[in-house]
Amino acid sequence: MDTETEGKAAAVEEMREWCVALPKVELHAHLNGSVRNSTLLELAKHLGDKGVIVFEDVKDVIMKSDRSLPECFKLFDLFHILTTDHDTVTRIAKEVVEDFAAENVVYLEIRTTPKNNEAKGMTKRSYMDAVIKGLKAVEDVDVELFGSNFRTNETLSSKLLDGVTKKKKIYVRLLLSIDRRETTSAALDTVNLAVEMMDQGVIGIDLSGNPVVGECICNVLCRETYLPALQHAKNMGIPVTIHCGEVANRKEIQAVLDFCPQRLGHVCCLNDVEWKKLKSLMIPVEICLTSNVMTGGAPSLELHHFADLYNAKHPLSLCTDDSGLFSTSLSNEYYLVATTFGLSKFELFQLAQDAVQFVFADDVVKKSLKEVFKHAEKRLLMWDELAAPS
Ligand code: 5GP
């Protein structure tokens, strides 16, 4: 390697390290989309041995890295076969939190679709109890699920701070997802479950699922619509986030903007009028760069709508969507923004810090998170000087 190539490789390495060290807020992560490949393979092997699936076929599907939107949803059906029992749900919830904490995510909202599965004796409630059991089982990291006693000086990667490894802390909150395949009454059950579990870390509702199936949200006259459930959440004071514009469904995008949820996911296929409306409403957007490019919602990283929203100072937050499925991490999403759009370390820090404003958790948590960033600021913004040889 010549000196120039070596210098470039070192700069890439240094920037990646910085993005990992940056405290981050993750607002759009689907539980079953964030499972480690190694865990999926292990589960698939187990079911293969039992003759439930053909392991060799499934293995190739899990390891494939480029996926279209329809392929992703086929894969979710497979994941749901692999992760149906309570113990597995507990295991994946634990591992997902560990993986985000390893990336210095200090606040994580995990969303998941509560599932009924009679064959396994699973109800939506017992599914969520299994998720919470997983969060409580995390040992390497302190997980704050209900309280606000977040001690800021222990939240960062302390190893980078002073050479001593201390236990990290992470706030975890849960959003219950309504799958677009569900009926009105099933969607209402999910919102009622969220109400029931508000004191157990559940703080919001999400509408997701394959955007080319299910009733359009705008079809209020149709009995199979999600609007009653979303409205019920709103009436109960539960914040709502909706997947919006993953495909160019004009009526639906319009209806989602009219509903005016607290946050929106993706917003890929908006036309000029819809962009204008989104910007005037100032609804914070959960930006999922890798996911959007891989599933065709954005033509490329360079042409991703992040740049337009960022330049317009629209509220936004970088997210992973499905870190397992798309082989990404939140640190990598920040790195991609730096390298694609040329944001400086200062701008990346601001971007990460600004996301605190859009969390669904209460003001006490927000205040603690602000302290985390304040504590990290000097070290991260003086990184280059600190790293320079004396
Ligand atoms: P789970 O809710 O089972 O924990 O996570 C997987 C589910 O999240 C999928 O079945 C799907 O309903 C939803 N999901 C994950 N990624 C996406 C995405 O990019 N777009 C949409 N619309 N839904 C998604």
Automatic annotation (TrEMBL):
Gene3D superfamilies: Metal-dependent hydrolases (3.20.20.140). CDD domains: ADA_AMPD. Transmembrane segments: none annotated. GO terms for molecular function: adenosine deaminase activity; metal ion binding. Residues 23-371 form the Adenosine deaminase domain. It catalyses: N(6)-methyl-AMP + H2O + H(+) = IMP + methylamine. It comes from the Eukaryota. One of its GO terms (biological process) is nucleotide metabolic process. Its cofactor is Zn(2+). InterPro entries: A_deaminase_dom, Ado/ade_deaminase, Metal_Hydrolase. Keywords: Hydrolase, Metal-binding, Nucleotide metabolism, Zinc. Belongs to the metallo-dependent hydrolases superfamily. Adenosine and AMP deaminases family. This is Adenosine deaminase domain-containing protein. It comes from Zea mays (Maize).
